[in-house]
Write a structure and sequence with these properties.
- Its cofactor is pyridoxal 5'-phosphate.
- The protein is an alpha/beta fold.
- The chain folds into 2 domains: about 140 residues, Alpha-Beta Complex (Aspartate Aminotransferase, domain 1); about 240 residues, Aspartate Aminotransferase, domain 2.
- The protein is built from 13 helices and 12 strands.
- The strands form 3 sheets. Strands 2-8-7-6-5-3-4 form a 7-stranded mixed beta sheet, sandwiched between helices. A 3-stranded antiparallel beta sheet has the order 9-10-12. The protein has a two-stranded parallel ribbon with strand order 1-11.
- The relative contact order is 0.16.
- The mean pLDDT is about 95.
- It binds 4'-deoxy-4'-aminopyridoxal-5'-phosphate.
- 4'-deoxy-4'-aminopyridoxal-5'-phosphate binds next to helix 3.
Length: about 375
């Protein structure tokens, strides 16, 4: 199988597996225990936190300074941020292209009577940042939180989060950034960004599934989602998964150390992929092609077929890709991202996402292009005969 679904999840780096195995094999470890093994576990968490602090360029050892909460992943961090950051009666602004783990919790709060406002995007899938000050003003001092992702998981298009951070700072409003797709693909300094909260998830950068984090800026308060433990200063109680935490820190270290090489490599593979496919099929549409995009992401519409048939055909042909967000690909509703970009139904209903990783090779890409091209020709001919 040629794996081109790296925005859904990535293969774990063997160096990360070694670290995790080492921790698991070193005996029981509950960081809250008051014996030697417990202290070793806590030390491992402290060392992992120090390493994360360096990689994300944020101090994590100063009382009252920024904090990093370990969570079960991006979905939990996003839910925690949306429910726990803003004051209970304040309004929340989110963009229309956020991940379902932001949109669904915002819709849940809306159903409970909360004021939610939506930030639109342009035809390239970039949020209309110039509308943000007006939208905040329209909440009449009641805006408590803005949530904008750093890069979209479907199109890969970067969002103007630095501008959003500036606007939110000037307006005195908290900003949460879902940076799940950016880590390991583009550099990110949390000190420079100066947002209020940032989500990350380890399995998107060759770390383990089931571990992620929510970074909180200095003085940012959070109401917890979970109750019943004193871990992580009660902000996210529950026994810490020490092995996964160490695995995430190692994955982040590798992603940071090798970022420049991997970014270059993924970009050239993505360009090879798009150019070869376009050379054979001039009708293909590349979403966000003229926008600044993640180096690994290619979101394509195959206008003479539908995405479900194409996805199945590619699965049989040995190419793994997805029809939008993995979290919704089981039921596969049309992409809310492409709908927000105002694209015609024909393009929305024929879009597939491909994502390369540092493990992808040029041979694999050439082979994938051949298989994709063959599947598309086959489905297009079949459709022509049916018509
Ligand atoms: N946000 C974004 C932008 C994502 O791409 C994903 C994963 N599809 C998530 C959040 C959820 O992360 P996790 O799978 O770790 O829950």
């Amino acid at each position: 199988m040629i794996y081109l679904d790296n925005n859904a999840t990535t293969a774990i780096d063997p160096r990360v597996t070694d670290v995790i195995a080492d921790v698991f094999n070193s005996g029981p470890a509950n960081a809250s225990s008051q014996h030697g093994l417990g202290r070793v576990a806590q030390l491992r968490i402290d060392n992992a936190t120090d390493s994360i602090s360096v990689c994300l360029d944020t101090p994590l050892d100063q009382p009252g300074g920024p904090r990093f909460l370990f969570t079960s992943g991006g979905t939990e961090s996003n839910n925690l941020a949306i429910t726990g950051l803003a004051e209970p009666l304040s309004a929340i602004i989110i963009s229309r292209i956020e991940h379902p783990s932001v949109i669904a919790i915002a819709e849940h709060l809306l159903a409970l009577g909360r004021e939610i406002h939506w930030l639109d995007v342009d035809e390239n899938g970039v949020i209309n940042i110039d509308e943000l000050p007006q939208l905040i003003a329209s909440c009449r001092n009641r805006c408590g939180l803005v949530s904008i992702m750093s890069a979209n998981n479907e199109t890969g298009v970067h969002q103007p989060i630095e501008k959003a951070a500036l606007i939110c700072r000037q307006a005195g409003v908290l900003l949460h950034v879902d940076a799940t797709q950016s880590i390991g693909k583009v550099p990110l300094s949390l000190t420079k960004l100066d947002a209020s909260a940032v989500t990350i998830s380890a399995h998107k950068f060759h770390g383990p599934c089931g571990i992620g984090g929510l970074w909180l800026g200095s003085g940012v308060r959070l109401r917890p989602l979970f109750h019943g433990g004193e871990q992580q200063l009660e902000s996210r109680p529950g026994t810490e998964p020490v092995a996964l935490i160490c695995g995430m820190a190692e994955a982040l270290r590798i992603a940071t150390d090798e970022l420049v090489t991997n970014r270059q490599r993924m970009r050239s593979l993505r360009d090879q992929f798009e150019q070869s496919l376009r050379a054979e099929h001039s009708d293909l549409v590349i979403h966000g092609a003229t926008a600044d995009r993640l180096p690994n992401t290619s979101y394509l519409s195959f206008p003479h077929t539908d995405r479900q048939s194409m996805l199945m055909s590619l699965d049989l042909a040995g190419v793994a890709c997805s029809s939008g967000s993995a979290c919704s690909s089981g039921s596969s509703p049309p992409s809310h991202v492409l709908i927000a970009m105002n694209l015609p139904a024909k393009l929305v209903l024929s879009a597939l996402r491909f994502g390369m990783s540092k493990f992808s090779t040029s041979e694999e890409i050439a082979d994938a292009v051949y298989r994709i091209s063959r599947s598309y020709k086959h489905l297009r001919n079949k459709k022509d005969v049916e018509n």
